[in-house]
Amino acid sequence: MITIFKKTYFKSYDAQYRGFVYIAAFVCWVAAASADDTLSTEPAALDFTNTRSLWRADPNLTGEGVVIGTICRSMTYVDGEPQNDYRFNMSHNSLYDSDVSFTDGTDGQFGTSEHATAIAGVLLGLDENASHPDIGTFDYQGACPDASVNVYEFEQFSIRNLLGRHPIKEDIILLSLGDIFEDWWTRALEQAAAEKDFLVVASVGNGTSVYTPKPLYPGAGANVLGVGVVDATTDDDGTISLGNFSTPKSLNSSVGPTEDQRCKPDIVAPGTALVPSGNRANGYTIQDNWSSLASPIVAGTAALLEQTASSDTSLNKAFHQPGKSLVLKAVLMNSARKLPFWHKGRIAPGDDHETPLDYAQGAGLLDGLAAQKQLTAGKGKPGSVQSIGWDNRVLQGNGPGHAYGFSVTEPNQMITATLCWNRIYQPAYPFNRMLDEDRDLRLELWGVDPDNPKERVLLDYSDSVNDNVEHIYFACRSDYPAYAIRVRFNEEQPSDASTEQQFALAWSVGPDRQIGNPWWNDLNADNQIDNTDKLIHILIDNGTITEIDTMFLEQALKISHDRIQLLSENWGQWKTYLSKWAPSE
Question: Which domains does the chain have, with CATH numbers?
Fold first, then answer.
């Protein structure tokens, strides 16, 4: 089975480093807005995800004390054997002082990989005197430059640590690689993640442009935080932005559902960044729209959250309990920012109660600052809680579940809640899923009747028979000032006093962060806002899309049938976010 993996192994990455170097327009929101002469900071994508904002809020948050394991593949195979050219370029100015260990005992000075070095730069890079001929000078700072990173070659890790069950002691495991098929090693990784309680962050693939529209494993795995990619925008002259991004597209980011009808990705992040060269001591290249770069952005942000919990005395004990990796997953997903046209599952009006996430966006765009706020809000217990927080405990099968009640005092608020738990796999080869041991949970949102506080009304729920994630995103109603979130077993789940399931729950109440996003007006999803979008707006806003309208949209304007359906089915909801091109204008 390993041989099959090597033949199909994320061919997009072989193409990734064949010259995708662009003359770029440098965009960095925060630094460019500064009135002084300080250097710009790269990768600018870390500003877009509010990851670098954590540094500004607390300069001590650099990943120190957190251990990340990165699984990298050899770029060359001879007679089916890896040639170990999987290493970071440790001689690069941005990496030479990083805390990196190669598990084969080498020093990393030979057999380097462009792909692995790019990942390392996004994670660990630190270079105050960086430069690029088309951009100028800048300050290069990765997401968590003080984290410790153990670098594994893929086959060695699979055989030694997964098949041989050699201890995995890292806090976070990162994989910017994948296969179209679930395999023994992907299941073994999911089993180890659940047993050893570490967070696995993996890219889901680069979409139809290079490989397959389906999410790749292990990113598609149930116990893995799968990361998709948000498209970089381009200027009128075709230059690509390093700091401004639109929405995920199936052309560049693999989308769900998986073959077994689960939602993936779980979260999305930018996949375009300036990265260190893999074979020189200096120099940087621009890589565009690859989930390989989106996943280390998420993993690096998770490392900052892990450090936050460890250094905060009020959080440390509560966080470092069994299930802490589930807490990280729930916090990252629940705090994610919904992008334009986010909707659950199938294209249809209203909420899809049986599909928890958007098939392209997952829970939304990574937001590091919001994730920290979610985490530091602290652990809440069933009963009366604050309007933002998280919990981590065991659900018992002989009770009514756990309920968390809170009040909403501000108007026009959104309630977001995310429930996570792990699937169960055999602890030995072939690591098959243990269906009889799996549990199915349900997430509910109840409103408290103000005229009769003892009466509660079910307002929303998420209850997928396939996923081990449930997610609610609900606009508060003015007639319900108080709400309760409830976690319980699915009614079809056989349970008794011996039935148990560890879970993590995160919830929050806040403003609608979709308001004001300019990419609502990109109706044809081409990363441009122009007169074509205005024409589409007029056609759809007429109220009825005729067969002739559909043919015109598909053939003349090159809009997919699914996109037309998405716009027309929920136009009443989407229209409230579009104000630029009202018909009267």
Answer: 2-311 (3.40.50.200), 518-577 (no CATH)
